[in-house]
Structure formats: structure tokens, C-alpha cells
Amino acid sequence: AKERGRNSVRFFNQQMQADVSARSDIATGLRQALLQDEFVLYFQPQLERNLGVVGAEVLLRWQHPQHGMIVPASFIPVAESSGQILQIGRWVLEKSCLQLAEWARHTDTAHWYLAVNISARQLHSSAFVQEVVSALEQSGAAPEKLVLELTESQLLQDIDTIIDKMQQLNTLGVRFSLDDFGTGYSSLSYLKLLPLKQLKIDRSFVRDLLTDPNDKAIIKTILALGQSLELAVIAEGVETEAQYSKLLHLGCQQFQGYFFGEPMPQTSFVTRYRQRHEM
Ligand code: C2E
Ligand code: CA
Ligand code: CA
Ligand code: CA
């Protein structure tokens, strides 16, 4: 037992060593990525019941010179623990606001909003409100076109400070959406304290909606909650027509998922979804 213990400790240390150097490689890469402009924003459509595109969620990609396109799961956790998420998040906000300002200049794209993911560290940083305000001011983007996506777990600490920050931004017109809703551990009582506009049903509930009665019950509950708290509800991860029609039938107001469109570069997004004004 002692021998095995020692081996597993050694194994664990080697594993940790490998993880540490992989993580520090990524951290070094991320510093480069910011300097060399290797990050790209992808856009995934959000639709209303009539299937009109009302906006997009901004999803970050890292266009690595050697490794190709890297998805957030491979670098956001490292950026979170190294603190680089603060700079990356600010870059995402600035770019998103510049994009909004650009879309606002064309009649066929001017109605779109952008939903930007905010990490816990960003939200808890004392500079957060000012960063959002300067991104808006420097780009000239309308605050009403900016939605910030938070997750429940970010709201467990310092709730009073968070509410204060949200209210400051809300006063300017910025809206908040609660992402991955239903997967957190927090109580529902704070929901009415927060200046939220939207709940986003986590895709884990949408996935088995047609086969798992529990998931259907959870979705119905979230929709009822949205109605009584006067919050819009959007479902993410909609992959099939059957999921879409079920959600429609249950009264869901907005939709996002591969069934309607995958995350894509800006030019593809505009080509595919801009409003055409036929004569
Ligand atoms: P999320 O906020 O829950 O974003 C939705 C994720 O689901 C995206 O993954 C999206 O590509 C994926 N998705 C969309 N439709 C479908 C579908 O129909 N089926 C399935 N299975 N998946 C779908 P992605 O782009 O890999 O992003 C993963 C996570 O990384 C995001 O989860 C978000 O938490 C984080 N993230 C992405 N961009 C940013 C960012 O700019 N800042 C921060 N802090 N986090 C980001
Ligand atoms: Ca999100
Ligand atoms: Ca989500
Ligand atoms: Ca999710």
C-alpha cells in the first residue's frame, strides 16, 4: 500500500508538472495572442419566435499561428487563473462595441444587439463598470445594444457590490442576461434583486427535452419563472427542429443553437442574416 502510495504521488507530481508547463505555455501564448492580434470574435445568431435574427452572442476564438483555431475551453480556464482574462475580456468588450457601432451605420444590420460573456474576475474587478463605459464611449455604440451574460456562480460573492455595478450599467441602458440558468447552486430569492432582463436556459436541459420529462419540467419552470419575474427567456443549444417546435409550444421567446446557425465570423454572419430590403 505504501509502495502504491508513493507511486501514485510520483505519478501525480509528474502529471502536475506536465499540466503546469502546458498551462504556462498557454499563458505565454496568450500574451503573444493579445500583442499579435490573434483573437477573433465569432457570432452566433439569436432569434425570436418568428425566426427573425435579433442579435448575436459573441464567442471568442484564438487563431493560433501553428495550432489553428482554438476554442475557449482550451484557453479561458488558463486565462482565468493567470488573470489574463481581464485584458482579454476588455479586448472582447472593446471589439464588440466597435462592431455594434459599425453595424449601426448600415440599415440592414442596425437593429442587432450583441451579447458578451463576462468572466467572474472581470465582474468582480473594481474597474469593470468604467471599462464597459469606456468601451461604449470610445466606439460610440448604443448601450441599449449591449447585453452582458453573467452566470449564477459569479453572483455568489459580494452580491451587493455586483448589484450596484449592474444598476450603474443598467441605468445607461446596458442589459444583463443570466447564462447557463438552472445549473447553478444559488437560491432563487436573489433573482428579483438583480436588474436582469433575460434568463438563458442551459443547453443541458434542451438536449434531452424530448425524451427526459425532468428536463421538460425544468424548462417549463424556468419559462414560468421568467413570466412571473417579467424576464425574457432564451434557450441555448437548440440543435433540431423538434427541439425548436417543442420550445415554441412551451412558450419560449428566443432561441440560439446549431439548428439556426453555428458561431461564425462577422462577414459570414452579415451575409447570411442581414435584412434584405427587396423592392
Ligand atoms: P457559453 O457562454 O455557454 O456559450 C455557448 C457555447 O455553446 C459556445 O461554445 C457555442 O459555440 C456552443 N453552442 C452553440 N450552439 C450550440 C448547439 O446547438 N449545441 C451545442 N452542443 N453547443 C452549442 P464555445 O464558443 O466553445 O464557448 C464555450 C464557452 O466559453 C462559453 O460558453 C463561455 O462560457 C466561454 N466564452 C466564450 N467566449 C467568451 C468570452 O469572450 N469571454 C469569456 N469570459 N468567456 C467566453
Ligand atoms: Ca454565454
Ligand atoms: Ca450558456
Ligand atoms: Ca452552457
From TrEMBL:
EAL domain mapped to chain residues: 23-277
Organism domain of life: Bacteria
Coiled coil: none
Protein name: cyclic-guanylate-specific phosphodiesterase
Originating species: Rheinheimera pacifica
